[in-house]
Design brief:
Blueprint (H helix, E strand, L loop, with lengths): L2 H4 L10 E5 L27 H13 L4 E5 L9 H9 L6 E6 L4 H10 L4 E5 L5 H8 L4 H14 L3 E8 L8 H10 L3 E6 L17 H8 L6 E2 L10 E4 L6 E5 L12 E4 L4 E3 L7 E3 H6 L4 H13 L20 H4 L2
Parallel strand pairs: 1-2, 1-10, 2-3, 3-4, 4-5, 5-6, 6-9
Antiparallel strand pairs: 7-8, 8-9, 10-11, 11-12
Helix pairs in contact: 4-6
The structure holds S-adenosylmethionine.
Amino acid sequence: MSAKALLTDTFARTISYLRVSITDQCNLRCMYCTPDGIKKLANIDLLTYEEILRIVTLAVGMGIKKVRLTGGEPLVRRGVMDFIRQLAALPGLTEIRLTTNGVLLADMLDDLYEAGIRKLNISLDSLQADKFRRITGRDNFTRVWHGIEQAQKMGFTAIKINVVAMLGVNDDEILDFAKLTITRPLQVRFIEFMPMGAAAANQRDKFISAAEIIQRIASLGELTPVARHKLHGPARILKLPAAAGTIGLISPLSNHFCDTCNRLRLTSEGRLRACLLTDNETDLKHVLRTGGSDTEIKKLIFETVKNKPRGHLLSQTQKTGNCHGSMSRIGG
Ligand code: SAM
């Protein structure tokens, strides 16, 4: 059986993208992600870098082409740079991306560049220092912004700014974020707020749809669609007239992209998850730590893909669909 055939699910989706949460820890406490803080995993429960590399190596052999490192905040884990270098050396892995909150970014850019990372997603929910502190619980706007500017100067070519759009919190900044793309060659991506984990109980009213975001941005000028590669994810990409950058809209709730989902997720405690918003998980760590063979691990990866649900059930109005995990644990 070819590698491609191995990672095709029952709905004919080919799975080629693995998101790896390398830590549950984070140096921010975002109101929608970790409103009740983070219950730290015991070190022993966290996958070691060697264990992650073993899983990724096997997954790449089965058809995974792209890996994203996430968390928690991936840059807070000690030894992350050596790990990235090892990952970058894996034959068959064509793309490594990093999702970071940017707090530690400026100091690590040289090493990241040298390790081969060119593609960064940086989360930033406000361009106002005060509001940044209110959303994240930490006074770090200046550091994050400096990191973004430095990354642009250094030639990181594919920078995406992830903005979780929240009604009554940062929706008044939608146009300011969109305007960044006029002069800067980056992509500002608005993500619909997902009422999951601890935020599900009392923050549902913060939801604002991608359609409404587009409508607001259209006041700046005509938005034209930009063609994108299939591997480049679920965002709908638009561009303002003569803009240097682009605007992405990610609408997991108002317009499911489950039909084209090509992802698997590995949580920091070694569970493989076929859907962000469905709690079914396969415990790979147990197999790794009880002497499991490569064949056994590959069989579990294969079965997880086969059991990937057709789509998630989370909606703006439903309680939590079938997802109760928090983003910091699963890896956003
Ligand atoms: N610490 C890194 C960061 O901040 O980008 C990586 C982990 S973070 C969990 C990944 C992404 O998930 C961030 O862009 C964050 O804003 C997003 N996120 C977390 N909770 C969310 C929610 N309830 N709805 C939508 N996006 C969410």
